[in-house]
């Protein structure tokens, strides 16, 4: 099987020849080229080159072609700061008052910077290696994360807690859902095999499960439903411990759920089994600061937990639980990729 057949068989709960392995590696990939994140996320050719180079070195099955964790917010007018040692961060929001949601306009991903550069990267990677690697073109941010960035974290969490203008909160989430959908759809048009939303700020580390169910979940579910009804593949990323929202996380319908090591993997497997494929959950700190032997052990344990008493490995993509840190050593990344071959074969 090639990487694409292997991944599609996994997503279908069929029997792949082995567990596919992904990397979420925009930071070490840029560092290996000696360029800053500001440059890669604002220059599609550089972003593509960093990903293709890393793929040639590590030979992973699934490429998570990151869009920059704040790119949709930036496309909607939010000020974003780029740092070389961490993911970009949204700073000055655009909605001083919730009422200002009326002024927001939907934008065209193909002509709006920096989306346009990220889509260019997807087109290049798809053209160069899209028949050899499975590409997840990130549609970040998801509706809730984007709303937080447009309104500002504290103001939006306060809007939700006070709940004085629920119709305006709903209007903002609806705008963000439509915006996220446009960009994610464009990623598929650009040649990605699947797209994704990143919604970690809607997880229990930031938002209470009650508010997740009231606000974030319906927006995520509605967005994902549009992809499912069109026969399209979408991944859903919430890192941190998601145990208290597992039923809803699974019920969003995303074919891939990305989780990290803070969530009990056996519980996630129990909730998602034969409904969604789990992607993750190897600790990014271990990958950055551990040894190849420790990475190997963590991968073996995750593979064993996901196999449980099933007749063969399926419904699981082995990879980091979140974005790899810039300083992650190549030897540890090689150990991760090798573990899928060593412990995840189906013969
Ligand atoms: Zn994450």
Q: How would you summarize this macromolecular structure in one to three sentences?
A:
The chain contains 15 helices and 10 strands. It has helices at residues 3-11, 26-33, 37-41, 44-58, 71-75, 115-129, 143-151, 153-162, 166-189, 209-229, 246-251, 265-272, 284-289, 292-307, 330-343, and strands at 22-23, 62-65, 80-81, 89-90, 134-138, 194-198, 234-237, 256-258, 277-282, 316-320.
The number of strands is: 10
Strand order of the largest sheet: 1-2-5-6-7-8-9-10
CATH architecture: Alpha-Beta Barrel
- The average pLDDT score comes to 96
Bound molecules: zinc ion
First-residue to last-residue Cα separation: 13 Å
How much helix is in the residues? 40-55%
Unreliable segments (pLDDT under 50, ≥5 consecutive)? none
SS-derived structural category = alpha/beta
Assign the CATH class.
Alpha Beta
Kindly report the CATH topology.
TIM Barrel
User: Rg from C-alpha positions?
Assistant: 19 Å
User: How many individual domains?
Assistant: 1
Outline? globular
N-to-C SSE string, H for helix and E for strand? HEHHHEHEEHEHHHEHEHEHEHHEH
């Amino acid at each position: 099987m090639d990487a694409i057949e292997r991944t599609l068989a996994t997503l279908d709960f069929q029997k792949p020849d082995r567990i596919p392995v992904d990397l979420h590696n925009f930071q070490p990939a840029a560092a290996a080229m000696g360029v800053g994140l500001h440059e890669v996320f604002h220059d599609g050719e550089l972003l593509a080159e960093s990903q293709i180079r890393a793929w040639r070195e590590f030979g992973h099955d699934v490429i998570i072609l990151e869009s920059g964790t704040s790119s949709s917010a930036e496309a909607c007018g939010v000020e974003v700061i780029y740092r070389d040692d961490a993911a970009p961060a949204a700073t000055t929001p655009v909605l001083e008052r919730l009422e200002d949601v009326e002024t927001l306009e939907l934008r065209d991903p193909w002509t709006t910077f920096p989306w346009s550069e990220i889509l260019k990267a997807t087109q290049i990677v798809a053209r160069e290696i899209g028949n050899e690697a499975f590409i997840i073109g990130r549609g970040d941010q998801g509706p809730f994360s984007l709303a937080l960035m447009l309104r500002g974290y504290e103001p939006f969490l306060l809007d939700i807690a006070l709940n004085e203008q629920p119709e305006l909160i709903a209007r903002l989430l609806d705008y963000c859902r439509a915006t996220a959908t446009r960009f994610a759809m464009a990623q598929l048009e650009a040649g990605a095999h699947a797209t994704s939303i990143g919604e970690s700020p809607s997880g229990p580390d930031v938002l209470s499960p009650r508010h997740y169910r009231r606000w974030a979940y319906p927006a995520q579910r509605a967005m994902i439903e549009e992809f499912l009804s069109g026969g399209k593949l979408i991944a859903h990323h919430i890192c941190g411990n998601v145990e208290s929202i597992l039923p809803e996380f699974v019920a969003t319908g995303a074919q891939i759920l990305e989780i990290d090591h803070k969530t009990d993997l056996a519980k996630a497997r129990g909730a998602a089994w034969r409904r969604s494929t789990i992607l993750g959950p190897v600790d990014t700190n271990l990958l950055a600061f551990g040894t190849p032997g420790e990475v190997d052990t963590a991968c073996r344990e995750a593979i064993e937990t996901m196999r449980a008493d099933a007749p063969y490995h399926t419904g699981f993509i082995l990879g980091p639980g979140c974005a790899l840190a810039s300083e992650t050593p190549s030897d540890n990344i090689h150990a991760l990729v090798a573990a899928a071959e060593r412990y995840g074969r189906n013969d």
